[in-house]
Amino acid sequence: MSKEGKVQFDELDMIVDAVGLDKIMIEAPDKRQQQEIFMYYGPKANVGNIQPRDILSVSALRTGLRGDTIGILRKDAWKNYHTKQKAPEDYII
Fold it and tell me: Does a structural domain hold residue 92?
């Protein structure tokens, strides 16, 4: 994250490419950060530093069921990412 709290995907991509998305947890205490991470990496991203009161909200965000994300699901970005990661065909949206 930058000093302003913005997700720095160029640096994060290098880490994800080196170790794999399933092996990292991205600290994202802010709702905007969580949304950006899930929209970029998809629902398999692991986010940390979540307040207990926000767990259900983050879960809804992860699945695209929250009102501020339901209309902007980027299935094409998810498909491109999972294709790049060689996900099974039945997983790719």
Answer: no
Q: For residue 1, is it within any domain?
A: no
Domain residue limits at 56: 9-84
Per-residue pLDDT of the chain (93 residues; tens, 9 = 90+): 666 667 889 999 999 999 999 999 999 888 888 888 888 888 889 999 999 998 888 888 887 776 666 555 556 666 777 777 777 766 655
Q: What is the pTM of this model?
A: 0.67
Q: Any idea which residue has 């498909």 for tokens? A: 79
Q: What total number of domains does the chain contain?
A: 1
d(CA 31, CA 37): 10
